[in-house]
Amino acid sequence: GAGVSQSPRYKVAKRGQDVALRCDPISGHVSLFWYQQALGQGPEFLTYFQNEAQLDKSGLPSDRFFAERPEGSVSTLKIQRTQQEDSAVYLCASSLLPGTGNEQFFGPGTRLTVL
Amino acid sequence: GENVEQHPSTLSVQEGDSAVIKCTYSDSASNYFPWYKQELGKRPQLIIDIRSNVGEKKDQRIAVTLNKTAKHFSLHITETQPEDSAVYFCAASNLLTGGGNKLTFGTGTQLKVEL
Fold it and tell me: For residue A64, with 0-12 CB atoms within 10 Å meaning exposed, 13-18 middle and 19 or more buried, which class applies?
């Protein structure tokens, strides 16, 4: 079975552009997380989905960030009017069940560079 | 919210020696502590985890210890090999929040195993 996949792997955007990052979790995984990893830092939580419900978006840094998972599988993280400080690797992770300590499997990430 | 501190930020050992990485956490409600290994340009991968009802866990050359009273946990790697060279992240989570087990990561330790 395939692991978590993300696309695109690399994205270069001019400041002010909108971007959309896609995550394909492992099939059947209920929980889906987005993290932001700045260079040389640990991943930081952005938002969490349980199936299609976005239960926690406390980590989204501004209202320019929006995430969705409309059918409870694929998720999209959208960043509007990108700024240079948005440059980072965006990691998606999925786990089978919520709240049970099941391993979070990470995707390869999307490296976003905002010029 | 939870805050996780990790030390050292870099660690260089000779092949065959042991390596120890230490983390502290702030939220006494945290009860799940995974460790991830991230090679350059790759996704984080879980190497071992521990729950708060256990004081120590071993898996071959890797062990993790947890001191709930002091709120710190450590990763121990014995008989280090060059392929152990990577960035290691500790993390903490509360499995009982009902909103998923989002991870709070430390800042990472760059481990270099020298021949």
Answer: middle
Tens of pLDDT, residue by residue over A33-86, are: 999 999 999 999 999 999 999 999 999 999 999 999 999 999 999 999 999 999
Residue type, A79: I
Q: Kindly report the nearest CA distance between residue B95 and chain A, in angstroms.
A: 5
Mean pLDDT is lowest, of A53-62, A65-74, A92-101, B88-97, for A92-101
Distances in Å between the Cα of B104 and the Cα atoms of A23, B26, B47, B112 are 21, 11, 16, 24
B contacts of A41 (beta carbons < 8 Å): 107-108
Whether residue B85 lies within 8 A of chain A, CB to CB, comes out as: no
CB atoms within 10 A of CB B18: 12
